[in-house]
Design a protein that fits this description.
This protein is an alpha+beta fold. Helix content is about 25%, strand content about 35%. It is built from two helices and five strands; from the N terminus they run E-E-E-E-H-E-H. The protein has a five-stranded mixed β-sheet, sandwiched between helices.
Length: about 90
């Protein structure tokens, strides 16, 4: 297992959603940093679920963090809605 835990024993995976690729990083709450792990292919925002499931099984994260993009004025964008949809898919 490749688990990287922070000083409180938590493993955090951060996901950067994209329509063609989803970036995956390990994150540390104490230092506020993230370290790139890998990217997985996506087709119109749909990831290769088998690859994503495999990463989650390997790392056994305590927390999954998703970046939520907004417009410059703080309003929701089209990508905000896409990330929320992706979040719902992850939860099931």
């Amino acid at each position: 297992m490749n688990t990287q835990r922070d000083s409180q024993g938590l493993c955090i995976l951060a996901l950067d959603f994209g329509l063609r690729r989803i970036g995956i990083a390990t994150a540390n709450r104490i230092s506020g940093t993230a370290t790139a792990l890998t990217t997985i292919a996506a087709r119109d925002g749909e990831p290769d679920w088998a690859v994503l499931d495999g990463l989650v099984a390997e790392w056994e994260p305590d927390i999954l963090v998703l970046g939520l993009p907004y417009n410059a004025d703080g309003t929701d964008s089209e990508m905000t809605d896409r990330v929320r949809h992706f979040q719902q898919q992850l939860a099931t």
